[in-house]
Amino acid sequence: MLTCFIVFSSLTCNATFKGSKKDSPRIINVVNFIRQTDYRLENSDKLLFETVQNQIKLVNQYDFPATFLLQYDALINPKYQDLLKKHLNSKSEVGAWWEITQPQVEAAGLKWRGEHSWVSTASIAFTPGYTTLEREKLIDVYMKKFKEIFGKYPKSVGSWFIDSHTLQYMYEKYGIVASCNCKDQVGTDGYTLWGGYWNQAYYPSKRNAYMPAQTEEGQIPVPIFRMLGSDPMYQYETGVGNNYQGVISLEPVYRDSGKNRKWVEYFLKSIVDEPCLAFNYAQAGQENSFTWDNMREGLEMQFSIFDSLRTARKIRIETLEESGRWFRKQFPRTPSTAITTLVDINNKNNKSVWYNSRYYRSNLFWENNSVYFRDIHLFNEKFEDEYLRNPGRGNSFSYYTLPVVDRFHWSTPEKKVGLRLIELNQNGRKKDIALLSPDISEISNSILKVRSKDESGSIFIIEFHEKYIKIACEKNMKKNSKWMLELDIPKERIGRLPYKKYEKGYIDSEFKKFNYRITCPKGDIEKGNNSDFTFRIIPVKDKIIINCSTN
Protein backbone atom coordinates (compact mmCIF):
# COMPACT_ATOMS: atom_id res chain seq x y z
CA MET A 1 0.00 0.00 0.00
CA LEU A 2 2.84 2.38 0.87
CA THR A 3 4.48 1.77 -2.50
CA CYS A 4 1.41 3.02 -4.30
CA PHE A 5 1.39 6.33 -2.37
CA ILE A 6 5.10 6.90 -3.01
CA VAL A 7 4.80 6.30 -6.75
CA PHE A 8 1.80 8.55 -7.20
CA SER A 9 3.32 11.43 -5.25
CA SER A 10 6.75 11.22 -6.87
CA LEU A 11 5.63 11.29 -10.50
CA THR A 12 5.53 14.97 -11.40
CA CYS A 13 4.38 16.92 -14.43
CA ASN A 14 4.13 20.51 -15.60
CA ALA A 15 0.36 20.70 -15.38
CA THR A 16 -1.73 23.33 -13.66
CA PHE A 17 -4.90 21.85 -12.22
CA LYS A 18 -7.79 24.25 -11.72
CA GLY A 19 -11.04 23.18 -10.14
CA SER A 20 -11.88 20.61 -7.50
CA LYS A 21 -11.32 16.91 -8.07
CA LYS A 22 -14.53 16.48 -6.13
CA ASP A 23 -16.25 18.14 -9.08
CA SER A 24 -14.46 15.88 -11.56
CA PRO A 25 -14.43 12.45 -9.92
CA ARG A 26 -12.21 9.56 -10.96
CA ILE A 27 -14.38 6.48 -11.35
CA ILE A 28 -13.37 2.82 -11.58
CA ASN A 29 -15.83 0.14 -12.68
CA VAL A 30 -14.83 -3.47 -12.06
CA VAL A 31 -16.64 -5.34 -14.85
CA ASN A 32 -16.28 -9.10 -15.24
CA PHE A 33 -18.31 -10.73 -17.97
CA ILE A 34 -19.23 -14.36 -17.93
CA ARG A 35 -19.42 -16.97 -20.66
CA GLN A 36 -20.66 -20.49 -19.98
CA THR A 37 -18.37 -22.15 -22.49
CA ASP A 38 -15.57 -21.41 -24.94
CA TYR A 39 -14.76 -23.82 -27.77
CA ARG A 40 -11.19 -22.50 -27.87
CA LEU A 41 -10.40 -23.97 -24.43
CA GLU A 42 -10.17 -27.57 -23.32
CA ASN A 43 -12.40 -28.27 -20.31
CA SER A 44 -13.72 -24.71 -20.70
CA ASP A 45 -16.96 -25.00 -18.69
CA LYS A 46 -15.06 -25.97 -15.54
CA LEU A 47 -12.25 -23.42 -16.05
CA LEU A 48 -14.65 -20.55 -16.74
CA PHE A 49 -16.77 -21.32 -13.69
CA GLU A 50 -13.73 -21.53 -11.42
CA THR A 51 -12.54 -18.19 -12.79
CA VAL A 52 -15.76 -16.47 -11.74
CA GLN A 53 -15.61 -18.14 -8.32
CA ASN A 54 -12.16 -16.63 -7.76
CA GLN A 55 -13.17 -13.22 -9.13
CA ILE A 56 -16.03 -13.11 -6.62
CA LYS A 57 -13.70 -14.09 -3.77
CA LEU A 58 -11.34 -11.26 -4.70
CA VAL A 59 -14.14 -8.71 -5.03
CA ASN A 60 -15.52 -9.77 -1.64
CA GLN A 61 -12.07 -9.68 -0.03
CA TYR A 62 -11.78 -5.97 -0.82
CA ASP A 63 -15.52 -5.33 -0.39
CA PHE A 64 -15.62 -3.68 -3.83
CA PRO A 65 -18.86 -3.02 -5.65
CA ALA A 66 -18.44 -4.88 -8.93
CA THR A 67 -20.46 -5.63 -12.05
CA PHE A 68 -20.83 -9.19 -13.31
CA LEU A 69 -22.42 -9.45 -16.75
CA LEU A 70 -23.99 -12.75 -17.80
CA GLN A 71 -24.10 -14.11 -21.31
CA TYR A 72 -27.35 -16.02 -21.92
CA ASP A 73 -25.75 -19.46 -21.73
CA ALA A 74 -24.33 -18.62 -18.29
CA LEU A 75 -27.58 -16.94 -17.23
CA ILE A 76 -29.59 -20.15 -17.64
CA ASN A 77 -26.99 -22.28 -15.85
CA PRO A 78 -28.16 -23.00 -12.25
CA LYS A 79 -24.54 -23.14 -11.05
CA TYR A 80 -23.95 -19.49 -12.01
CA GLN A 81 -27.33 -18.47 -10.62
CA ASP A 82 -26.49 -20.05 -7.27
CA LEU A 83 -22.95 -18.64 -7.23
CA LEU A 84 -24.03 -15.05 -7.85
CA LYS A 85 -27.06 -15.13 -5.57
CA LYS A 86 -25.32 -16.73 -2.58
CA HIS A 87 -21.72 -15.57 -2.76
CA LEU A 88 -21.48 -12.13 -4.42
CA ASN A 89 -21.50 -9.22 -1.98
CA SER A 90 -24.62 -7.05 -1.75
CA LYS A 91 -22.87 -3.96 -3.14
CA SER A 92 -22.35 -5.60 -6.52
CA GLU A 93 -24.72 -5.95 -9.45
CA VAL A 94 -25.55 -8.61 -12.01
CA GLY A 95 -26.29 -7.46 -15.56
CA ALA A 96 -26.28 -8.69 -19.14
CA TRP A 97 -23.36 -9.46 -21.43
CA TRP A 98 -24.61 -9.05 -24.98
CA GLU A 99 -22.95 -11.75 -27.02
CA ILE A 100 -25.45 -14.04 -28.68
CA THR A 101 -25.39 -17.80 -28.06
CA GLN A 102 -27.19 -20.84 -29.45
CA PRO A 103 -29.59 -21.29 -26.48
CA GLN A 104 -30.71 -17.66 -26.76
CA VAL A 105 -31.22 -17.84 -30.52
CA GLU A 106 -33.22 -21.03 -30.32
CA ALA A 107 -35.32 -19.75 -27.41
CA ALA A 108 -36.22 -16.79 -29.64
CA GLY A 109 -37.38 -19.17 -32.37
CA LEU A 110 -34.46 -18.39 -34.68
CA LYS A 111 -31.96 -20.61 -36.45
CA TRP A 112 -28.43 -20.85 -35.03
CA ARG A 113 -25.70 -20.35 -37.65
CA GLY A 114 -22.58 -21.21 -35.66
CA GLU A 115 -20.41 -24.33 -35.49
CA HIS A 116 -20.43 -24.25 -31.68
CA SER A 117 -22.94 -23.02 -29.09
CA TRP A 118 -20.95 -19.81 -28.84
CA VAL A 119 -18.70 -18.44 -31.59
CA SER A 120 -16.75 -15.22 -31.97
CA THR A 121 -17.89 -14.60 -35.57
CA ALA A 122 -19.10 -10.98 -35.65
CA SER A 123 -22.33 -11.58 -37.59
CA ILE A 124 -23.35 -14.39 -35.21
CA ALA A 125 -22.10 -13.18 -31.83
CA PHE A 126 -23.31 -9.56 -32.09
CA THR A 127 -26.76 -8.13 -32.79
CA PRO A 128 -25.76 -6.04 -35.86
CA GLY A 129 -25.72 -9.45 -37.59
CA TYR A 130 -29.47 -9.86 -37.07
CA THR A 131 -32.54 -8.07 -38.46
CA THR A 132 -34.15 -5.47 -36.21
CA LEU A 133 -37.07 -7.79 -35.50
CA GLU A 134 -34.66 -10.61 -34.60
CA ARG A 135 -32.78 -8.24 -32.28
CA GLU A 136 -36.01 -7.50 -30.43
CA LYS A 137 -36.85 -11.20 -30.08
CA LEU A 138 -33.38 -11.90 -28.67
CA ILE A 139 -33.82 -9.08 -26.15
CA ASP A 140 -37.28 -10.22 -25.05
CA VAL A 141 -36.07 -13.78 -24.47
CA TYR A 142 -33.08 -12.64 -22.42
CA MET A 143 -35.01 -10.13 -20.32
CA LYS A 144 -37.81 -12.56 -19.54
CA LYS A 145 -35.35 -15.20 -18.36
CA PHE A 146 -33.28 -12.71 -16.34
CA LYS A 147 -36.36 -11.48 -14.48
CA GLU A 148 -37.49 -15.05 -13.76
CA ILE A 149 -34.12 -15.72 -12.13
CA PHE A 150 -33.27 -12.43 -10.39
CA GLY A 151 -36.70 -10.87 -9.92
CA LYS A 152 -35.95 -7.75 -11.97
CA TYR A 153 -34.54 -6.66 -15.30
CA PRO A 154 -30.82 -5.90 -15.63
CA LYS A 155 -29.85 -2.24 -15.49
CA SER A 156 -26.42 -2.63 -17.11
CA VAL A 157 -25.75 -4.23 -20.49
CA GLY A 158 -22.31 -4.54 -22.05
CA SER A 159 -20.71 -5.95 -25.17
CA TRP A 160 -17.83 -5.37 -27.53
CA PHE A 161 -20.49 -3.41 -29.39
CA ILE A 162 -24.28 -2.97 -29.15
CA ASP A 163 -26.18 -1.33 -32.01
CA SER A 164 -28.45 1.67 -31.51
CA HIS A 165 -31.70 -0.18 -32.31
CA THR A 166 -30.93 -2.72 -29.59
CA LEU A 167 -29.99 -0.06 -27.05
CA GLN A 168 -33.08 2.02 -27.77
CA TYR A 169 -35.34 -1.03 -27.43
CA MET A 170 -33.67 -2.10 -24.16
CA TYR A 171 -34.07 1.41 -22.77
CA GLU A 172 -37.68 1.97 -23.79
CA LYS A 173 -39.05 -1.47 -22.89
CA TYR A 174 -36.80 -2.63 -20.06
CA GLY A 175 -35.31 0.54 -18.55
CA ILE A 176 -31.56 -0.10 -18.79
CA VAL A 177 -29.52 2.78 -17.35
CA ALA A 178 -25.94 2.04 -18.45
CA SER A 179 -23.99 0.26 -21.16
CA CYS A 180 -20.36 -0.32 -22.05
CA ASN A 181 -18.51 -1.08 -25.26
CA CYS A 182 -14.99 -1.83 -26.38
CA LYS A 183 -12.13 0.62 -26.68
CA ASP A 184 -11.06 1.92 -30.09
CA GLN A 185 -9.38 -0.81 -32.12
CA VAL A 186 -8.58 -1.76 -35.70
CA GLY A 187 -9.05 -5.35 -36.82
CA THR A 188 -8.70 -6.79 -33.31
CA ASP A 189 -10.86 -9.91 -32.89
CA GLY A 190 -12.28 -9.35 -36.36
CA TYR A 191 -13.90 -5.95 -35.97
CA THR A 192 -13.03 -2.26 -35.98
CA LEU A 193 -14.22 0.61 -33.79
CA TRP A 194 -12.41 3.80 -34.78
CA GLY A 195 -12.74 7.51 -34.23
CA GLY A 196 -15.18 7.43 -31.31
CA TYR A 197 -15.44 9.27 -28.01
CA TRP A 198 -12.11 8.25 -26.51
CA ASN A 199 -12.58 6.79 -23.01
CA GLN A 200 -15.07 8.03 -20.37
CA ALA A 201 -18.71 7.93 -21.55
CA TYR A 202 -21.15 9.43 -24.05
CA TYR A 203 -24.81 9.42 -25.08
CA PRO A 204 -25.09 7.56 -28.40
CA SER A 205 -26.91 8.75 -31.49
CA LYS A 206 -30.18 6.97 -32.30
CA ARG A 207 -28.71 6.30 -35.75
CA ASN A 208 -25.28 5.10 -34.74
CA ALA A 209 -24.40 3.86 -31.26
CA TYR A 210 -20.71 4.52 -31.90
CA MET A 211 -21.38 8.20 -32.63
CA PRO A 212 -22.16 10.64 -29.78
CA ALA A 213 -25.32 12.63 -30.43
CA GLN A 214 -25.25 16.41 -30.41
CA THR A 215 -28.86 16.98 -29.32
CA GLU A 216 -31.07 15.53 -26.62
CA GLU A 217 -33.65 14.70 -29.29
CA GLY A 218 -31.09 12.70 -31.27
CA GLN A 219 -29.59 10.73 -28.39
CA ILE A 220 -30.41 7.53 -26.57
CA PRO A 221 -30.35 8.54 -22.87
CA VAL A 222 -28.21 5.59 -21.84
CA PRO A 223 -24.54 6.46 -21.29
CA ILE A 224 -22.04 4.13 -22.95
CA PHE A 225 -18.79 3.75 -21.00
CA ARG A 226 -15.65 2.83 -22.95
CA MET A 227 -14.06 -0.39 -21.74
CA LEU A 228 -10.63 -1.90 -21.17
CA GLY A 229 -8.47 1.07 -20.16
CA SER A 230 -6.42 1.86 -23.26
CA ASP A 231 -2.90 3.19 -22.90
CA PRO A 232 -3.56 6.90 -23.64
CA MET A 233 -0.18 7.37 -25.30
CA TYR A 234 0.81 4.13 -27.02
CA GLN A 235 -2.34 2.12 -27.79
CA TYR A 236 -3.07 4.44 -30.72
CA GLU A 237 0.35 3.76 -32.24
CA THR A 238 0.13 -0.03 -32.02
CA GLY A 239 0.20 -1.30 -35.60
CA VAL A 240 0.14 2.22 -37.07
CA GLY A 241 0.07 2.12 -40.86
CA ASN A 242 -1.26 -1.45 -40.89
CA ASN A 243 -4.71 -3.02 -40.68
CA TYR A 244 -4.50 -4.60 -37.24
CA GLN A 245 -3.82 -3.40 -33.71
CA GLY A 246 -2.40 -5.15 -30.72
CA VAL A 247 -3.55 -4.41 -27.18
CA ILE A 248 -1.99 -2.18 -24.50
CA SER A 249 -4.67 -1.98 -21.83
CA LEU A 250 -5.61 -2.42 -18.19
CA GLU A 251 -6.70 -6.00 -18.85
CA PRO A 252 -4.74 -7.97 -16.24
CA VAL A 253 -3.65 -10.76 -18.59
CA TYR A 254 -1.26 -8.58 -20.62
CA ARG A 255 2.32 -8.87 -19.42
CA ASP A 256 3.52 -5.44 -20.57
CA SER A 257 0.46 -3.45 -19.46
CA GLY A 258 -2.32 -4.65 -17.14
CA LYS A 259 -0.11 -7.28 -15.47
CA ASN A 260 2.83 -4.87 -15.12
CA ARG A 261 2.76 -2.78 -11.93
CA LYS A 262 4.85 0.01 -13.42
CA TRP A 263 2.47 0.37 -16.37
CA VAL A 264 -0.62 0.25 -14.14
CA GLU A 265 0.75 3.04 -11.95
CA TYR A 266 1.62 5.10 -15.04
CA PHE A 267 -1.87 4.56 -16.44
CA LEU A 268 -3.63 5.39 -13.17
CA LYS A 269 -1.59 8.55 -12.71
CA SER A 270 -3.09 9.82 -15.95
CA ILE A 271 -6.59 8.78 -14.89
CA VAL A 272 -6.37 9.90 -11.27
CA ASP A 273 -4.03 12.90 -11.04
CA GLU A 274 -4.14 14.83 -14.32
CA PRO A 275 -6.68 17.38 -15.69
CA CYS A 276 -9.77 15.67 -17.11
CA LEU A 277 -12.61 18.25 -17.12
CA ALA A 278 -15.95 16.56 -16.20
CA PHE A 279 -14.60 13.24 -14.89
CA ASN A 280 -12.16 10.47 -15.63
CA TYR A 281 -12.84 6.77 -15.89
CA ALA A 282 -11.35 3.33 -16.22
CA GLN A 283 -12.89 -0.12 -16.49
CA ALA A 284 -11.06 -2.92 -14.71
CA GLY A 285 -11.82 -6.63 -14.60
CA GLN A 286 -11.57 -9.42 -17.17
CA GLU A 287 -13.70 -11.84 -19.19
CA ASN A 288 -13.65 -15.33 -17.75
CA SER A 289 -12.44 -16.88 -21.03
CA PHE A 290 -8.90 -15.80 -20.12
CA THR A 291 -9.09 -18.10 -17.05
CA TRP A 292 -7.98 -17.44 -13.48
CA ASP A 293 -4.40 -18.68 -13.84
CA ASN A 294 -3.76 -16.04 -16.52
CA MET A 295 -5.45 -13.09 -14.81
CA ARG A 296 -4.80 -13.74 -11.13
CA GLU A 297 -1.43 -12.01 -10.76
CA GLY A 298 -2.49 -8.85 -12.58
CA LEU A 299 -5.93 -8.62 -11.01
CA GLU A 300 -4.66 -9.07 -7.44
CA MET A 301 -1.99 -6.42 -8.02
CA GLN A 302 -4.53 -3.97 -9.47
CA PHE A 303 -7.03 -4.51 -6.65
CA SER A 304 -4.37 -3.69 -4.09
CA ILE A 305 -3.65 -0.38 -5.87
CA PHE A 306 -7.37 0.42 -6.23
CA ASP A 307 -7.84 -0.20 -2.53
CA SER A 308 -5.04 2.24 -1.68
CA LEU A 309 -6.45 4.89 -3.98
CA ARG A 310 -9.95 4.41 -2.58
CA THR A 311 -8.63 4.73 0.98
CA ALA A 312 -6.88 7.96 -0.07
CA ARG A 313 -10.21 9.13 -1.59
CA LYS A 314 -8.64 9.54 -5.01
CA ILE A 315 -11.07 7.24 -6.78
CA ARG A 316 -14.66 6.03 -6.56
CA ILE A 317 -15.26 2.35 -7.18
CA GLU A 318 -18.81 1.84 -8.42
CA THR A 319 -21.00 -0.60 -10.27
CA LEU A 320 -21.75 0.25 -13.88
CA GLU A 321 -25.35 0.93 -12.91
CA GLU A 322 -24.28 3.44 -10.24
CA SER A 323 -22.02 5.24 -12.72
CA GLY A 324 -24.82 5.31 -15.29
CA ARG A 325 -27.28 6.85 -12.84
CA TRP A 326 -24.71 9.44 -11.74
CA PHE A 327 -23.95 10.33 -15.36
CA ARG A 328 -27.64 10.83 -16.17
CA LYS A 329 -28.07 13.07 -13.12
CA GLN A 330 -25.02 15.19 -13.96
CA PHE A 331 -25.18 15.55 -17.74
CA PRO A 332 -28.24 16.12 -19.95
CA ARG A 333 -25.94 15.78 -22.98
CA THR A 334 -22.51 14.26 -23.50
CA PRO A 335 -19.95 16.32 -21.53
CA SER A 336 -16.48 17.44 -22.54
CA THR A 337 -13.69 15.36 -21.03
CA ALA A 338 -9.93 14.98 -21.34
CA ILE A 339 -7.21 12.43 -20.69
CA THR A 340 -3.84 14.04 -20.01
CA THR A 341 -0.63 12.00 -20.04
CA LEU A 342 2.56 13.94 -19.42
CA VAL A 343 4.76 11.19 -17.96
CA ASP A 344 6.16 8.82 -20.60
CA ILE A 345 6.58 5.26 -19.35
CA ASN A 346 9.07 4.62 -22.19
CA ASN A 347 11.19 7.69 -21.38
CA LYS A 348 10.95 9.09 -24.91
CA ASN A 349 9.76 12.51 -23.74
CA ASN A 350 6.38 11.97 -25.41
CA LYS A 351 3.18 13.55 -24.10
CA SER A 352 -0.45 13.09 -25.02
CA VAL A 353 -3.66 15.07 -24.50
CA TRP A 354 -7.02 13.60 -25.55
CA TYR A 355 -10.06 15.85 -25.70
CA ASN A 356 -13.64 14.70 -26.25
CA SER A 357 -16.90 16.56 -26.64
CA ARG A 358 -20.24 15.69 -28.22
CA TYR A 359 -18.92 17.28 -31.44
CA TYR A 360 -15.45 15.77 -31.89
CA ARG A 361 -12.42 14.09 -30.43
CA SER A 362 -8.82 15.18 -30.80
CA ASN A 363 -5.39 14.03 -29.73
CA LEU A 364 -2.51 16.47 -29.33
CA PHE A 365 0.78 14.62 -29.25
CA TRP A 366 4.37 15.55 -28.39
CA GLU A 367 7.01 13.39 -30.03
CA ASN A 368 10.27 14.47 -28.45
CA ASN A 369 8.86 18.03 -28.19
CA SER A 370 7.64 18.23 -31.81
CA VAL A 371 3.90 18.80 -31.61
CA TYR A 372 1.06 17.72 -33.86
CA PHE A 373 -2.54 16.62 -33.91
CA ARG A 374 -2.33 12.92 -34.63
CA ASP A 375 -6.09 12.52 -34.58
CA ILE A 376 -9.22 14.65 -35.11
CA HIS A 377 -12.58 12.97 -35.78
CA LEU A 378 -15.93 14.75 -36.01
CA PHE A 379 -19.26 13.48 -34.68
CA ASN A 380 -22.60 13.91 -36.44
CA GLU A 381 -25.75 12.24 -35.15
CA LYS A 382 -27.13 12.07 -38.72
CA PHE A 383 -24.35 9.71 -39.83
CA GLU A 384 -25.97 6.27 -39.86
CA ASP A 385 -24.07 3.08 -39.21
CA GLU A 386 -24.23 0.62 -42.08
CA TYR A 387 -26.01 -2.04 -40.00
CA LEU A 388 -28.78 0.19 -38.66
CA ARG A 389 -31.47 -1.14 -40.96
CA ASN A 390 -29.98 -4.30 -42.44
CA PRO A 391 -27.89 -7.03 -40.81
CA GLY A 392 -24.20 -7.31 -41.49
CA ARG A 393 -22.61 -10.50 -42.70
CA GLY A 394 -19.21 -12.12 -42.34
CA ASN A 395 -16.50 -12.21 -39.70
CA SER A 396 -15.87 -8.49 -39.24
CA PHE A 397 -17.86 -5.34 -38.54
CA SER A 398 -16.59 -1.74 -38.74
CA TYR A 399 -17.81 1.42 -37.05
CA TYR A 400 -16.29 4.82 -37.79
CA THR A 401 -16.76 8.55 -37.27
CA LEU A 402 -15.78 11.39 -39.64
CA PRO A 403 -12.02 11.85 -40.09
CA VAL A 404 -10.20 15.18 -40.26
CA VAL A 405 -6.81 13.77 -39.24
CA ASP A 406 -6.16 10.04 -38.87
CA ARG A 407 -2.53 9.15 -38.18
CA PHE A 408 -3.25 5.45 -37.85
CA HIS A 409 -4.91 4.92 -41.23
CA TRP A 410 -3.07 7.60 -43.21
CA SER A 411 0.46 6.67 -42.18
CA THR A 412 2.69 3.97 -43.56
CA PRO A 413 4.93 1.95 -41.24
CA GLU A 414 7.84 4.00 -42.62
CA LYS A 415 6.21 7.44 -42.46
CA LYS A 416 3.95 8.51 -39.63
CA VAL A 417 1.82 11.58 -40.21
CA GLY A 418 -0.02 14.27 -38.30
CA LEU A 419 -1.20 17.86 -38.55
CA ARG A 420 2.12 19.33 -37.49
CA LEU A 421 3.00 22.66 -35.97
CA ILE A 422 5.82 23.92 -38.21
CA GLU A 423 7.92 27.00 -38.84
CA LEU A 424 8.70 28.30 -42.34
CA ASN A 425 11.68 30.65 -42.52
CA GLN A 426 12.23 33.45 -45.04
CA ASN A 427 14.09 31.03 -47.35
CA GLY A 428 11.12 28.65 -47.44
CA ARG A 429 12.78 26.03 -45.26
CA LYS A 430 10.53 24.35 -42.74
CA LYS A 431 11.09 22.61 -39.44
CA ASP A 432 8.96 21.30 -36.62
CA ILE A 433 8.28 23.69 -33.77
CA ALA A 434 9.26 22.22 -30.42
CA LEU A 435 6.97 23.16 -27.54
CA LEU A 436 8.60 22.72 -24.16
CA SER A 437 7.19 21.97 -20.69
CA PRO A 438 3.48 22.45 -21.45
CA ASP A 439 1.12 23.72 -18.76
CA ILE A 440 -2.31 22.09 -18.94
CA SER A 441 -5.24 23.83 -17.25
CA GLU A 442 -9.01 23.58 -17.09
CA ILE A 443 -10.35 27.08 -17.66
CA SER A 444 -14.03 26.04 -17.62
CA ASN A 445 -16.05 22.85 -17.42
CA SER A 446 -15.61 22.33 -21.18
CA ILE A 447 -12.37 24.12 -22.12
CA LEU A 448 -8.89 22.64 -21.81
CA LYS A 449 -5.93 24.98 -22.28
CA VAL A 450 -2.36 24.08 -23.26
CA ARG A 451 0.26 26.79 -22.83
CA SER A 452 3.88 26.30 -23.88
CA LYS A 453 6.97 28.12 -25.13
CA ASP A 454 9.10 27.17 -28.09
CA GLU A 455 12.88 27.29 -28.09
CA SER A 456 12.94 30.98 -29.01
CA GLY A 457 10.54 31.99 -26.24
CA SER A 458 7.44 32.38 -28.40
CA ILE A 459 4.31 31.47 -26.43
CA PHE A 460 1.77 29.15 -28.02
CA ILE A 461 -1.73 28.62 -26.67
CA ILE A 462 -3.84 25.64 -27.79
CA GLU A 463 -7.41 25.58 -26.50
CA PHE A 464 -9.93 22.79 -26.92
CA HIS A 465 -13.48 24.13 -26.84
CA GLU A 466 -16.68 22.10 -27.12
CA LYS A 467 -17.15 23.03 -30.80
CA TYR A 468 -13.70 24.12 -31.98
CA ILE A 469 -9.94 24.08 -31.50
CA LYS A 470 -8.03 27.37 -31.24
CA ILE A 471 -4.28 27.66 -31.81
CA ALA A 472 -2.61 31.01 -31.18
CA CYS A 473 0.86 32.44 -30.86
CA GLU A 474 0.39 34.88 -28.01
CA LYS A 475 3.94 36.21 -28.05
CA ASN A 476 5.81 35.70 -31.32
CA MET A 477 9.56 36.27 -30.91
CA LYS A 478 10.46 35.51 -34.53
CA LYS A 479 9.96 38.23 -37.13
CA ASN A 480 11.42 36.54 -40.22
CA SER A 481 9.51 33.28 -40.12
CA LYS A 482 5.93 32.06 -40.11
CA TRP A 483 4.25 29.33 -38.10
CA MET A 484 1.44 27.14 -39.43
CA LEU A 485 -0.14 23.71 -39.33
CA GLU A 486 0.80 21.27 -42.09
CA LEU A 487 -0.40 17.83 -43.10
CA ASP A 488 1.81 15.71 -45.34
CA ILE A 489 0.38 12.35 -46.40
CA PRO A 490 2.47 9.60 -48.11
CA LYS A 491 1.55 9.01 -51.75
CA GLU A 492 0.49 5.45 -50.91
CA ARG A 493 -2.25 6.78 -48.61
CA ILE A 494 -3.66 9.68 -50.67
CA GLY A 495 -6.59 7.52 -51.78
CA ARG A 496 -7.74 7.18 -48.15
CA LEU A 497 -8.27 10.91 -47.65
CA PRO A 498 -11.85 12.23 -47.41
CA TYR A 499 -10.97 15.66 -48.85
CA LYS A 500 -12.83 16.49 -52.08
CA LYS A 501 -12.67 20.25 -52.54
CA TYR A 502 -10.31 22.82 -51.05
CA GLU A 503 -11.24 26.46 -50.52
CA LYS A 504 -9.57 29.21 -48.53
CA GLY A 505 -11.79 28.72 -45.48
CA TYR A 506 -12.95 25.13 -45.74
CA ILE A 507 -12.45 21.64 -47.15
CA ASP A 508 -15.46 19.73 -48.41
CA SER A 509 -15.11 16.09 -47.47
CA GLU A 510 -16.84 12.75 -47.95
CA PHE A 511 -16.53 9.58 -45.88
CA LYS A 512 -18.64 6.43 -46.32
CA LYS A 513 -20.92 8.41 -48.69
CA PHE A 514 -21.53 11.05 -45.99
CA ASN A 515 -20.69 14.66 -46.90
CA TYR A 516 -19.29 17.08 -44.34
CA ARG A 517 -17.27 20.28 -44.27
CA ILE A 518 -14.09 21.04 -42.36
CA THR A 519 -14.04 24.80 -41.76
CA CYS A 520 -11.51 27.32 -40.46
CA PRO A 521 -13.24 30.52 -39.27
CA LYS A 522 -9.75 31.85 -38.53
CA GLY A 523 -6.86 30.80 -40.75
CA ASP A 524 -6.36 30.24 -44.47
CA ILE A 525 -6.23 26.76 -46.02
CA GLU A 526 -3.59 26.24 -48.69
CA LYS A 527 -3.74 23.09 -50.82
CA GLY A 528 -0.43 21.42 -51.59
CA ASN A 529 0.59 19.24 -54.52
CA ASN A 530 1.04 16.12 -52.32
CA SER A 531 4.74 15.91 -53.19
CA ASP A 532 5.66 18.53 -50.58
CA PHE A 533 2.54 18.67 -48.42
CA THR A 534 -1.18 17.87 -48.60
CA PHE A 535 -2.49 21.10 -47.09
CA ARG A 536 -1.55 23.85 -44.70
CA ILE A 537 -3.53 26.08 -42.37
CA ILE A 538 -1.88 29.50 -42.23
CA PRO A 539 -2.76 31.69 -39.23
CA VAL A 540 -4.47 35.04 -39.55
CA LYS A 541 -3.13 37.52 -37.00
CA ASP A 542 -1.33 34.64 -35.28
CA LYS A 543 -4.54 32.63 -34.75
CA ILE A 544 -6.08 29.48 -36.21
CA ILE A 545 -9.54 28.18 -35.38
CA ILE A 546 -10.68 24.76 -36.61
CA ASN A 547 -14.45 24.38 -36.38
CA CYS A 548 -15.30 20.85 -35.23
CA SER A 549 -19.08 21.15 -35.39
CA THR A 550 -20.65 19.75 -38.57
CA ASN A 551 -24.23 20.32 -37.42
Please provide a written account of the structure.
With 551 residues, the chain is α+β, with helices and mostly antiparallel strands. The chain has 12 helices and 31 strands. It is globular. It starts with a helix and ends with a strand.
Number of helices: 12
Mean pLDDT value: 92
* Alpha-beta content class: alpha+beta
| Sheet with the most strands, sense and barrel status | 10 strands, antiparallel
- Tally of DSSP β-strands: 31
- How far apart lie the N and C ends? 49 Å
Instruction: Name the quaternary structure.
Output: single chain
* Approximate shape: globular
How much helix, percentage-wise, in residues? Answer: 10-25%
What percent of residues are in strands?
Answer: 25-35%
- Low-pLDDT runs of 5+ residues are 1-21
Radius of gyration: 24 Å
Keywords:
disordered N terminus, alpha+beta, nine-stranded mixed β-sheet, 551 residues, 31 strands, 12 helices, ten-stranded antiparallel β-sheet
Task: Briefly say what this structure is.
This protein has 551 residues and is an alpha+beta fold.
